Amino acid sequence: MNVTMSSADVAAFDDVPVPYMQRTRDWYLALGYDNPYRYAHCAQVPFTALTRPLSQSRVALLTTAAPYQPDKGPQGPGAPYNAAAKFYEPFVGDTREDHDLRISHVSIDRKHTSMEDSNTWFPLPLMRELVKQGRIGALTRNFHGVPTNRSQRHTLAVDVPVILERCRAEGADVAVLVPNCPVCHQTLSLTARALEAAGIATVIMGCAKDIVEHVGVPRFLFSDFPLGNGAGKPHDAQSQRETLELALRVLESAPAPRTTVQSPQVWSERWEWKLDYCNVERVSPEELAHLKAENDKARDTAKALRDRP
Q1: Could you tell me the superkingdom of the organism this chain comes from (predicted)?
Q2: Nearest one of 139, 65, 62 to 95, comparing CA atoms
Q3: 10 Å Cβ neighbour count for 67?
Q4: Virtual CA dihedral for 109, 39, 45, 91, nearest 10 degrees?
């Protein structure tokens, strides 16, 4: 049988997932930091099969988004990177209530997404709907905020045990994890591994394919969208619903660890947005110098927050 393809069926040669690990390494070298960050990499990956249908399971939601803090500067749509809005200890929030969680404190793609619709990074309202519809048995009493920490040792030794203990205490059978920035993807990948090893099945909904697969996780739904949109397109309820449903199907059907499923959704008709994030080839020397000064200032702010008694 002959199969013919139209030009619309064939992707451009360069239309591939953004290489976030290489981009961030090159970016920080260009800013003058001579010790490029090394992302975690694990050879073995734990895997826990579902022990009951999702319609009978209790699901935990894990996020790297931060509660809005009115006294911490700009955090709304279009806000610049805001280190003052970071959090450094795991937090919880009642899943029965609405919450204002934002992502100004992490390095998401500010050029190609609006930061207007929190449902693209925090799908709690939709998950409550799925409980009412019987697709999910129940949510845990709380969702869990996981700090984005560049120190892998701190994440594994301090934050992950807290998250695991809380998920166990609330009877979680399953966890859905939604990261935002590159390091967020590493953080929640390490968290997913620990939950899975403890018998809690997990799925990550994210946009940084290379990082998640480099760390090594049981299940990953990859959306080829700008960072900050792991739960679907902004102001697009159908996209958000289809993204979450596909993540749940990955939970149900993954045959083994390191299962990655790519969402069929496309961000836009043009792929060139992928060229901009942390790309030193698209920034002038003058802008790089300005960005280094801003980054140094943000690091000082973050250090002051971490060192606060």
Answers
A1: Bacteria
A2: 139
A3: 15
A4: -60
DSSP 155: I
Do 90 and 146 contact (CB within 8 A), yes or no? yes
Residue type, 219: R
Q: Cα(27)–Cα(25) distance, rounded to whole angstroms?
A: 5
Each residue's pLDDT tens digit in the chain (309 positions)?
A: 444 444 445 556 678 999 999 999 998 888 888 778 899 999 999 999 998 999 999 999 999 999 999 999 999 999 999 999 999 999 999 999 999 999 999 999 999 998 999 999 999 999 999 999 999 999 999 999 999 988 999 999 999 999 999 999 999 999 999 999 999 999 999 999 999 999 999 999 999 999 999 999 999 999 999 999 999 999 999 999 999 999 999 999 999 999 999 999 999 989 999 999 999 888 888 887 777 777 777 676 766 666 666
Tokens 């749509």 — which residue?
Answer: 77
Residue corresponding to tokens 């009978």: 56
- Residue identified by tokens 């967020």 is 184
Domain borders along the chain are 54-262
The interaxial angle of helices 124-133 and 237-253, nearest 10 deg, is 70
Rounded to 5 degrees, φ, ψ at 30 are -65, -30
Rounded to 5 degrees, φ, ψ at 225 are -120, 165
Contact 149, 88 (CB under 8 A): yes
Chain centroid offset of residue 50 CA: 22
Decide if 129 contacts 122 (C-beta within 8 A).
Answer: no
Distance CA 170, CA 58 (A): 9
How would DSSP label each residue in 62-117? EE--EE--GGGS--STTPPP-GGG---S-EEEETTS---EE-TTS---TTT--S--
* Helix (H), strand (E) at residue 297: helix 285-306
The helix or strand, by DSSP H or E, that contains position 165, with its residue range, turns out to be helix 160-169
